[in-house]
Amino acid sequence: MYGLQLASCNKSFSQTSILSGLNADFRGFILGIAGRNGSGKSTLLKILSGQLRFTSGSMQWTGPGAQSLPPAEVLRTMGFCAPYLDLYPDLDCMENLRFINQLRSEPADEDAMRRALLDTGFKWIPSTLYRHLSSGQKQRARLAAAVFFDPPM
């Protein structure tokens, strides 16, 4: 089981505090974040996925057996999808997934990639470039990119 502990976490940009005194302990979870516009939801997700850092406080990811996970391992075990992350516009969806797989240094599982695209409800012509997809198709392709390797988080 994977877990995440946050202790006295704060995030500010310049003099503006975005997150203050955040404490949490998650184990074996699906994380969803809700809040009003500007409340720090995207900032928190960017921090949890390693794109930003807290200004202060501590964040600790744990893996099976409650052992501490180094940041590189967290990224290898996490699937992350957000509207502000994009795939390469001049590649089709399968080429994008193959590229992501190469970055992970894993053997290609073409069936898993196709299945992930289909499981999101994605309907596409294989040679269509990502740039020519509708916004809904792009979101489904991003979701497939986050889950095709069956991440535990």
- Rg over CA atoms, rounded to whole Å, is 17 Å
Helicity level: 25-40%
Oligomer classification: single chain
Shape: globular
How would you classify the helix and strand content by structural class? Answer: alpha+beta
What count of helical segments does DSSP give? 5
What's the total number of strands?
3
Mean model confidence by pLDDT: 89
Query: How many angstroms separate the termini?
Result: 9 Å
Strand content: 15-25%
Strand order of the largest sheet: 2-1-3
- Stretches where pLDDT falls below 50 for ≥5 residues? none
List strands and helices in order, with pairings.
Elements: E1 3-13, E2 16-27, H1 41-48, E3 56-62, H2 71-77, H3 93-103, H4 110-119, H5 135-147
Antiparallel strand pairs: 1-2, 1-3
Helix pairs in contact: 3-4, 4-5
Q: What does this entry look like structurally?
A:
By secondary structure, the protein is an alpha+beta fold. 32% of the residues lie in helices and 20% in strands. It has 5 helices and 3 strands. Strand 1 and strand 2 form a beta hairpin. Helix 3 packs across helix 4 and helix 4 crosses helix 5. The longest helix is centred in the C-terminal third of the chain and has 13 residues. It is globular, with a radius of gyration of 17 Å. The chain starts with a strand and ends in a 6-residue tail after the last helix.
